Amino acid sequence: MALSHDADLLQAALYGYQMEKEKIEAKIRELQAQLKGKRAPAPAVKHANKPGGRRQMSDAARARIAAAQRKRWAEFHKKRAAAQAGD
Predict the structure, then answer these.
(1) Better-scored residue on pLDDT, 47 or 29
(2) What is the distance, to the nearest Å, from the Cα of residue 82 to the centroid of all Cα atoms in its chain?
(3) Neighbour count for residue 40 (Cβ, 10 Å)
(4) b/e map of 56-78 (b: 16 or more CB within 10 Å)?
């Protein structure tokens, strides 16, 4: 548990530093362009998806997960009711 938590924290920190680096590089390009009397070129988008971000889930996948969870809860409640009836 601690190792995955540490890895998640490090991944988030890395992402944050990368974003800061990109902001700083954009400012540097802007300043260099001003010194040369030009406008700064628009930076290329490097991160289309956020690393470590949530993935989009289809409606069908969501429905399958919900059905599986309902099935688990039904089984849990069935066992619980049987245990209470046996007391």
Answers:
(1) 29
(2) 41
(3) 15
(4) eeeeeeeeeeeeeeeeeeeeeee
For residue 42, give both structure tokens: 């628009």
Long-range contact set of residues 1-10: C-beta below 8 Å, sequence gap at least 24: 8/52
Asked whether the beta carbons of 43 and 29 are under 8 A apart, the reply is yes
- From the CA atom positions of the chain, what is the Rg in Å? 25
pLDDT for residue 54 is more than 60: yes
Cα separation of the two ends of the chain: 37
**What 3-state class would DSSP assign to 21?**
helix
